[in-house]
Design goal:
By secondary structure, this protein is an alpha+beta fold. Helices cover 33% and strands 29% of the residues. It has three domains: 259 residues, no CATH class; 81 residues, Alpha-Beta Plaits, CATH 3.30.70.1380; 55 residues, no CATH class. The chain starts with 6 loop residues before the first strand and ends with a helix.
C-alpha cells in the first residue's frame, strides 16, 4: 500500500502526452517556473527560449510551454518533431548521442533528484532505441529526442516535478493515434516504434484514438513510463492542485491537454506494503530497471540499522535489507542494501547516509521481474488482516496478524493459519 499522506501526481493522458505538455501541466499546477528555467539553464545549452503562456484548448484554460529554438539560417531540417504533440514546433536542426546528453547532466549544477530523474528518462530512451536499432544504448544517437527543445522538455519536466515535492506518480491509460508519421528515419507507423516499445516495456495500458495525429510522443512516453509507479484510474487523493498542459493545436472534438492532479494519498492504491511496482500486469522479458544501493557499516547498532531499513522503506524503496559481513581486521559489520527506482535513487541515497552515517555508497543497475499479485483483507474473529495473493502463494501481513493475535489472546501462528485459510477460500469462491 502507498502510505497515506504521501504526495502523489496523477496524470490524465486521455488526449495523449508529450514532453512539453507534461512540463506545462506541472507549472500550471503550481511548479516554480523559475526553478524550471534555472535547471534547464544549468545544462549550458544555448540557442533556445522557454516561455510559459496561458491558452485555451477546447474551452479549457491551460498553460503552454513554448520552447523556441534559434536555428541556423541554412541548417538542414529534420522531417518530424517527435517531442511536441501534434507537430507544432519548428523542425529540429540537431541531435546528440545519449553519452553527450548524460555528460551534460553530470556536469550541470542540478538538484540530485532532478539529475537522477532526467538521467533515468534518457537511459530508458537509449535502451529502447538501442534495441530497435541494434546498437549499444550509450552509442545511440537521439534525433528528435536529442534536440535542444526535447532536452529542455525532459529536464524542465523533471525540475517541475521536484518543485512540487511529488513522492509518487500514477498515470492513466495512454491515448495513441493511428496511421503514419514522418521522422528523421523516414515514414514510420503511428505510434512511433520507440513510443510503443516504452509503453510495452512498462506494461502501460493504452487506448486508441481515431486520429492520425501523433498524440503520444517518445518523450512523453519516456517521462510517464520512467516516473509512474502504476497505471490506471486516479487513486484516492485529498486534492491540492490541478494543472493543464496544452498541446499546440486547439482541436474541435477534445481538449488537447494533459491534466495533472496533485494531492495527498487518502488511502491504499492497491499496491503492496513493500512499495512494489504495480506495473507487473503486463511486462516483457526485458524486466524493469532498478538501482541497487549498498553501504558497508561497522559502527552502528542493530537497533540503528533496523531503523534505517524502516526509514528507507518509508521513503519509497522497493525493498531494503541487512546482510552480516566480516570486514578487514576481522571487524563484524553489515551491508545495508536498498532496491530503488532509478528516479528515487538520489533521495534514498541521502536517507541511507543520514540514517547509517556511512562514508560511502555504491550503486549498480539491475533488472527486476516482480510477479503479479493482489491485496485483500479477511476478517479473523472481528479483526481485519491483510493478505497478499500471488499465483499459488498466500502471504499474511504479519503486523495485522500480530495485532489480531494480541487482541484475541491467540498465538500469532494461529491467526496466520486462519487468515490464510480464509483468503484461499475467498479466492476459490
Amino acid at each position: 500500500m502507498t502510505t497515506t499522506g504521501r504526495r502523489i501526481a496523477w496524470f490524465n493522458t486521455q488526449a495523449g502526452v508529450a514532453g512539453d505538455m507534461t512540463m506545462a501541466a506541472l507549472v500550471d499546477a503550481g511548479a516554480d517556473p523559475d526553478m524550471v528555467a534555472d535547471a534547464v539553464a544549468a545544462l549550458g545549452v544555448g540557442g533556445y527560449a522557454l516561455m510559459f503562456e496561458r491558452v485555451q484548448r477546447c474551452g479549457v484554460g491551460a498553460t503552454w510551454a513554448n520552447v523556441v529554438v534559434h536555428q541556423e539560417p541554412h541548417a538542414p531540417h529534420a522531417d518530424h518533431d517527435s517531442d511536441d504533440q501534434l507537430g507544432a514546433r519548428e523542425p529540429h536542426t540537431d541531435h546528440r548521442p545519449v553519452g553527450e546528453i548524460l555528460e551534460l547532466l553530470d556536469n550541470a549544477e542540478l538538484h540530485d533528484r532532478i539529475r537522477d530523474l532526467a538521467v533515468a528518462v534518457f537511459r530508458r530512451l537509449a535502451e529502447v532505441e538501442g534495441t530497435i536499432h541494434g546498437i549499444e544504448p550509450h552509442d545511440v544517437g537521439l534525433h528528435e529526442v536529442g534536440a535542444v527543445d526535447s532536452i529542455v522538455d525532459v529536464v524542465g519536466a523533471c525540475a517541475a516535478l521536484v518543485s512540487l515535492d511529488v513522492d509518487e506518480v500514477v498515470c492513466s491509460p495512454v491515448a495513441l493515434g493511428t496511421g503514419s508519421i514522418r521522422s528523421a528515419h523516414g515514414v514510420l507507423p503511428n505510434p512511433a516504434p520507440a513510443t510503443m516499445a516504452l509503453l510495452a516495456d512498462a506494461g502501460a495500458p493504452t487506448v486508441g484514438l481515431d486520429t492520425t495525429l501523433e498524440t503520444t510522443t517518445p518523450t512523453g512516453a519516456a517521462l510517464m513510463t520512467t516516473w509512474a509507479r502504476s497505471f490506471g484510474a486516479m487513486p484516492p487523493l485529498v486534492v491540492d492542485a490541478v494543472g493543464y498542459g496544452a498541446g499546440t493545436a486547439d482541436l474541435a472534438d477534445r481538449a488537447n491537454v494533459v491534466q495533472v492532479v496533485i494531492g495527498r494519498a487518502a488511502g491504499p492504491l492497491g499496491d503492496d506494503a513493500d512499495h512494489d511496482d504495480a506495473r507487473t500486469d503486463a511486462r516483457t522479458d526485458a524486466g524493469t530497471p532498478v538501482m541497487l544501493l549498498e553501504a558497508n557499516v561497522d559502527d552502528a547498532t542493530g537497533e540503528v540499522l533496523a531503523h534505517a531499513v524502516s526509514q528507507l522503506l518509508a521513503a519509497g524503496a522497493h525493498d531494503a535489507w541487512l546482510v552480516p559481513i566480516v570486514m578487514k581486521k576481522g571487524r563484524p559489520a553489515h551491508t545495508v542494501s536498498v532496491l530503488a527506482d532509478p528516479s528515487r535513487a538520489a533521495e534514498l541515497r541521502e536517507v541511507l547516509v543520514r540514517e547509517t552515517g556511512t562514508l560511502g555508497v555504491r550503486a549498480r543497475e539491475l533488472r527486476r521481474w516482480p510477479q503479479r499479485r493482489s491485496m485483500t483483507t479477511v476478517d479473523v474473529d472481528g479483526h481485519p488482516v491483510g493478505v497478499k495473493i500471488g499465483g499459488d502463494r498466500v502471504k499474511v501481513e504479519f503486523d495485522d496478524a500480530a495485532r489480531a493475535a494480541s487482541a484475541l489472546d491467540l498465538p500469532v501462528r494461529t491467526v496466520i493459519e486462519r487468515a490464510t485459510a480464509l483468503a484461499r477460500a475467498d479466492a476459490g469462491s
